[in-house]
User: What shape does this take?
Amino acid sequence: MKAVIDHCRQIASYSEVSGQITRTFLSPPMRQVHEYLGAWMRRLGMATRVDHAGNLRGTYGEGKNALIIGSHLDTVPNAGAFDGVLGVVMAIQSVELLAGERLPCQIEVIGFSEEEGVRFGVPFIGSRALIGDNTLLSRPDIAEAIHAYGVGPVEAPKPYAGYLEFHIEQGPVLESLNLPLAIVDAIAGQSRMDITFTGQANHAGTTPMALRRDALAGAAEWILAVEAAGLADGVATVGHLALEPNARNAINGRVVASLDVRHAADATRKATVDCLLVSATKIAQKRGLKVTTQVNLDQPAVPMHMGLTQQLSEAAGPRAHRMTSGAGHDAMILAPHIPSAMLFLRSPGGISHHPDETVLVGDVAAALEVGMRFLRDFHV
Ligand SMILES: [Zn+2]
Assistant: This one.
C-alpha cells in the first residue's frame, strides 16, 4: 500500500520550516493538510468539516452507531512523516478500500488538531475537546489561535460506539520481534518527579574525599538504582540533571534529577517509585546529603477497551503482538469515554520524532487488511 506512504510524504511537505517537518496546532501548513485530506475525503463522498477545536472530521455512511478512526495531524519540531498522520491517512484509505460498500455503522474519520503539546505547551487539545473538555480552548492564547484560523461552531460531545487508532510503535519492540503489528492493551501510567540531592559545594582540589558531601556522586549512585528498577519491571529513567555549581573544578552541592517511571499497572508503578524514594533516602543518609522530592505528574494507566481490543485481535489473528504503549496517544484521552482500541505498526530502527522515522509498505498493507476485517465485523 504505497499510496498510504505517498500521502504521508505529501503531507510532510506542509511544514512551518522548510527542509523540516514541523507542523504545530493550527499553524498555516495545517490548513494545507486540511485542504489536502478534506478534498480526498470529499472525493470519496464523505461530508467534511473542521470542528471548534480545529479537528478535521469526515463522515462516511449512516447508522445509529458511529465508529471513529483517527489520530493527530500535528507534529513535534523536525519530526518524521508518520507519527499521527499515518493513522489519519490509514483511516481515509480504509474508507477508499470500502469502495462505496455500506457498513451497519457510520465511520467518522478524525484528524486531531493537536496531540504533541508543542505550540502551547499543553497536549491533546483536539482529543480533549472531542470528549467535551473545552477548558484549554478558552485559554486566551489558544482561543486567539483558534479565532485566527477560523473553525466551526462549538459541538457538544456525542456518544460513539468505538475509536480505532492506527499508530507507529515509536519504539524498537516489534522490530526486535520481527513482527509487523501489535495490539495495544493499555497505555502506561506515568510518574514524573524531581529528586533533589543537597550536599556541600566545595573546591575539587582542597577537599579530601572522606570529607566531601558530593551531591552528584550520590545522585549517580541512585541513578544506577533507577536503571535496575526499570530493568526489573517496566521502564524507569533519569533524563535530566541540573547541577550546582556544575564547574570542572568543583564538587557539586546540589543536583536535581528528573525521574520518569512508566508501567501498565499503577500499583507496580507506585511501588517502584516508593522503592526508589527509599533508595534515594538511604544513599543520601550514607553520604551526608539531604534529599527532597517533588511530584510533577502522577498519571494513571489507561486500559484499552476489552471488547473492542478482542475484536481487533480477532481481525489481526495470532501474528499480532500484544503490548503496552509507553507513550501517550489520543486514545488515552478518549478511552475513558469511548471504547477504544489501538493497532501499532512496526517502527523500522525503532526511530520516531526524527526525520528518519518510516514504515514498511508491507506492514501498512497488513495493518489495512486487519483494519478492513475489523470494520466489516465491527459490532457494539
Ligand atoms: Zn503520535
About this structure: Residues 72, 83-84, 115, 167, 329 surround zinc ion (CB under 6 Å).
